[in-house]
Specification:
Blueprint: H1 2-5, E1 10-12, E2 18-20, E3 23-24, E4 27-30, E5 33-34, H2 40-44, E6 52-61, H3 63-68, E7 75-83, E8 91-101, E9 105-115, E10 118-127, H4 136-142, E11 174-189, E12 192-217, E13 220-248, E14 251-276, E15 279-306, E16 313-338, E17 341-370, E18 373-394, E19 408-425, E20 429-446, E21 449-450, E22 454-470, E23 473-484, H5 488-491, E24 502-505, E25 513-526, E26 531-552, E27 558-581, E28 586-603, E29 606-623, E30 629-644, E31 652-665, E32 671-684, E33 691-704, E34 710-717, E35 727-731, E36 734-740, E37 746-754, E38 765-767
Parallel strand pairs: 4-7, 6-38, 24-27
Antiparallel strand pairs: 1-2, 2-3, 4-5, 6-7, 8-9, 8-37, 9-10, 10-11, 11-12, 12-13, 12-36, 13-14, 14-15, 15-16, 16-17, 17-18, 18-19, 19-20, 20-21, 20-22, 22-23, 23-25, 25-26, 26-27, 27-28, 28-29, 29-30, 30-31, 31-32, 32-33, 33-34, 34-37, 35-36
Amino acid sequence: EDLLKRMPGIEVDKNGNIKSMGKSVNKILVDGKEFFGDDPKVATKNLPADAVDKVQAFEKKSDASLFSGIDDGEREQTLNLVLKDGKKAGYFGEAKAGGGIPEQYEASLKAFKFRPKSQLAAMGMLNNINKFGFSFEDYFNFNGGLKSLAGNGGEIRIDGEDLPIDAGQPVTGKVNSGAFALNYMAEPNARNRFTFNYMGNGMDKVLDQYTDAKNFIPGGSFSTQQNEQSRFDNLVNRASVKWRQQVDSAHFMTLNLYGLTGYNKKDEASLSESYRNAILENRLQNNINNKGNKTEAGGDFTWMQKRKGNWPLLNAVLQGSYRNQNSRDFWRNRTVYEDPIQEVRDEQYRNYTGTNTYGSATLSAVRALGKGYFLECSSGAGLASEKTHRQQGPLDMPEVITDSLSPEFSRSVLSLTNGITLKRNQKALRWNIALQRKDLWLNPVLSKQSLYNKHYGYVLPSAFMEKELGKGSRLHFVYNTSVTAPTAAQLMPVADYSNPLMLTKGNAFLKPEYRHTANASYFLFNQFSMSSFSASLRGDYTHNNIAYSRTVLPNLAQQLQLVNTPYEWSSALTLNYSKPVNSIGLSIHAGITESWAQSISPVNNTDNKNNTLSHQLDLSFSNIKSDVWDLRWGGNINISDSRYSINKEMNNRYYNYSGFAQISYRPVAQWSIGASGDITYYTAQSFDQPVTVPILSAEITRYLFASQRGAISIRAFDLLDRNKAVQRTSQLNYLMEQRPNTIGRYLMLSFSYRLNKAGNHNSISIQR
């Protein structure tokens, strides 16, 4: 990562995200081979710079395009890290261990072995400083990709407590975490490649969180305040296998398999109070204990055949997945209503078992029409099935089952999709237009009685265009439509009483969501000045959006039921500009984003329209042409306006201002000094006080032994002891502010040792 920051045409922001020639890098190869599921940050944050000979930047075509010779228009901005000859034999890596005060620790081990026909990498970490070892993209790749998380081939549901990573938001709570990952790749020849990935992670998270929510109802509002303490433990193991085989010049196949096992446990205690006009209306003491486990497996198989004649390409794809989840919940509630005074105690257990299966098959064929035109016909079928079984009863009599709250529920979705695509691919212009017909048969079953078997039919248009306007200049447009069927949890018409002040219930008569997305973008890169400019306009529209309808009772208890709202809108305009200014020795990046969203959430039979308009400005600077100093600083302004149709007096505006500065100084090879500072200022009209969070950290490193293979470091985090996590949300009919605990000031002494010889620091070159 430090190496890439110094290279012309490549940008690395403070979070490690990479742009090459102005475009985001989504794939990094090592000697032309995939590395840890293609997640760029795994390579850039772990490979030592002195192992790299060249960095090649290019746009990679898809495997289907490279095999068939028929350009499908897909491109992926890619960096290829070419290793030095001396690093292609033997092992190299790094071991690190550290301890600090008050009670901090960290340890990590990285080992790599690269050969011309194989690669082996292992990484492990253990710490209690809220530092995770893997990034968001890597979690999905190890987990089998996004499709492995789909309940019916198109729905993605993520349990945040399962993620061993920081997805970009502040890391909340105090976390002890550990992870281990293994990557093995073998390529006996250019036509045959096998990859195995494994990742295991576990964590113990202690959270102490205060929440203040302002809820809007027709003609008024009320507030809810909650204090929550919880402890969460989990352990997850994931493995995936990829096999890529070009059987001969006419046949190509890929096989991807994945598996997952997981266990989690959570103990939570909370106290919430609801007020109207500063008068207490109700109070809830809630204690919940949960244990659960899950097993998941799946894969996909692709077969392509090149042919002579008018039908040059046939493609067949098979997909399948299976998931099983089990959980056991216990809760104890004490609810007090003030007017009239009433106390209700509720102690129950609930056992849950759920299984999901999905399978699909798709066949497509490409016909050559001449003069660069192609026609692709496709046909596919899929079947998704979800089955859930719930048993609920009084906690003191576990043998008793409450029948009305213990349903057996299932839903199946049969889908048939037929489509046709006209495409043309030329050197400077690539485009396609497509039209699909998608038929869905939705069948929910409650207690072995079919509720209905409905048919839904949709026409799904799509379009794509990419035009090269000149050297380094490009125009891009894409439009897609999709359909998502409601899940079993959304359809099940049985209330969840675990929180008596917020009863939730599904709706067996939900319709599928029908979504339109469009994105137009312009990109310009000047290879002489290394400047880049990009502009993009995105829009999303969802018909029959699935959302909660809320009913607020006089005692401020809420009843929520899922319904289809007419629509949900969102749009965004983003502009970015980057340029190195050699005369002042700085690289400048500026960006602006304007976004707007509108959603409908019924409250007490009145449609509340929530409009949110956001303005964001980013400006950052970094120095160039220095091997001794590395300076980076910048800031961010984010202003959000939220407006509610049911109560215009509660319209609100948020202001978030943040700034950062990073400096590193290496006067000689044996010493390195660094410091960083971040400050964030939160304010909003509807919250009591603005919040300022300044974080100041520093580190000094002394390198030891020949070629600086060893290093001893002293790092101080949050010197002012002011670290806080503040999260503010505006959606549906409420404003919410959460203030969870997070890690505070610590001092860490660590020692690291490189397992490889550093060798001569040869010059690094970049190729395009």
